[in-house]
Design brief:
This protein has about 230 residues and is α/β, with parallel strands linked by helices. It contains 9 helices and 11 strands. It has a 6-stranded parallel beta sheet, sandwiched between helices. A 3-stranded antiparallel beta sheet has the order 7-6-8. The protein is globular and about 55 Å long. The N and C termini lie close together (about 10 Å). The relative contact order is 0.20. Bound molecules: adenosine-5-diphosphoribose (APR). The site of adenosine-5-diphosphoribose has 23 residues, from helix 1.
Length: about 230
């Protein structure tokens, strides 16, 4: 297809790439995440109002992600990385770890990760696969004793390391976007930036994203079929 070994490939993935691993997308389920409204569980206000509900929600998502397996689309991206080395950069909006379990190494989780937690006072981030589902079990920081929250970027918060993303967008010759509805910024704006900087822009997913007008090519289809078919040419 369009990508050669001389390209610098920036890949942006969204919930759609993990859909075929059994993880629910947000907008595909009528604006609910497993029955929760986003304002109830994924905003700083939700955390202030009901940390137990927030932790129950993220505990459930931890369980779901632990039970899921990487699919052919995750594996295809890991193999493109092997071929392109540091000419490949993967930025994901997903908080699951399926890219890493498929073998991807250069992964930037711009919205945080399910399997890390963070102290609300000293900002210490640490690996965490636990479930917190009762008031008595709510976690506290082992260094300073303050409440611990999921290391997730909630609505209204700034995504992680936007500088690194910007540097990579600057150098990319191809932007490949997979399985995201194009409705949450800043990620939905990457295509405009890449295009302005002269990159070729490609979207893969079963339906057109909201920012469809900015793509040079839209390949309609499931990620597990369309991604492995994107051959790299020397
Ligand atoms: N292959 C590829 N794409 C798919 C598949 C599939 N098998 N199934 C569904 N999709 C597409 C849908 O067509 C939709 O466009 O995945 C997209 C999922 O969209 P959203 O649920 O809006 O997910 P996303 O765009 O990643 O959300 C962005 O918003 O929900 C918050 O912070 C959360 O990171 C998330 C952000």
């Amino acid at each position: 297809m369009l990508i050669t070994a001389n390209d610098r490939l920036f890949v942006l993935t969204g919930a759609g790439i993990s859909a075929e691993s059994g993880l629910a997308t947000f907008r595909g389920s009528g604006g609910l995440w497993n029955g929760y409204r986003v304002e109830e569980v994924a905003t700083p206000e939700a955390w202030q109002h009901d940390p137990l509900l927030v932790w129950r929600f993220y505990s459930m998502r931890r369980r779901d992600a632990l039970a899921a397996q990487p699919n052919a689309a995750h594996l295809a991206l890991a193999s493109y990385e092997q071929q392109l080395g540091d000419r490949f950069y993967l930025c994901t909006q997903n908080v699951d770890d399926l890219h890493e379990r498929a073998g991807s190494v250069r992964v930037h989780h711009m919205h945080g990760t399910l399997f890390q937690s963070r102290c609300t006072r000293c900002d210490r981030v640490f690996p965490d696969q636990s479930f917190y589902e009762s008031a008595a079990a709510l976690p506290a920081c082992s260094s300073c004793g303050a409440p611990v929250r999921p290391h997730i970027v909630w609505f209204g918060e700034i995504p992680l390391d936007m500088d690194a993303i910007d540097r990579q967008l600057n150098r990319a010759t191809v932007l490949l976007v997979v399985g995201t509805s194009g409705s949450v910024y800043p990620a939905a704006g990457f295509v405009h930036i890449a295009r302005q900087r002269g990159a070729c822009t490609i979207y893969i997913g079963p339906e057109e994203p909201l920012n469809n007008g900015a793509f040079d090519q839209i390949l309609l289809g499931a990620a597990t079929e369309a991604l492995p078919a994107l051959l790299l040419h020397a």
